[in-house]
Amino acid sequence: MDAAQIHPTKIETKQEAKTLSKEQVKTVALKQCKGTVKSIQLKKEKGVDVFYVLIKGMDGKTTM
To answer: 38 and 54 in contact (C-beta within 8 Å)?
Structure first.
């Protein structure tokens, strides 16, 4: 995957990350960025749980 084609998009939800299922995360992400989910990862950043969702957009570009 070409790093130049990855476009970061921040999506926030008030629900605690650990209480979200991957299916819920996918639904929220696809409302913001149309395309196909390639991967979902849960990481901790500065003590906060953060989901990273990699989406291949309908335009062929990849969004994280």
So the answer is: yes
pTM metric for this prediction: 0.66
DSSP labels, 1-64: --GGGEE------SS-GGGS-HHHHHHHHHHHS-EEEEEEEEEEETTEEEEEEEEEETTS-EE-
Distance CA 9, CA 63 (A): 7
* pLDDT tens profile 4-55: 455 566 666 655 666 788 898 899 888 888 888 999 888 888 888 888 888 8
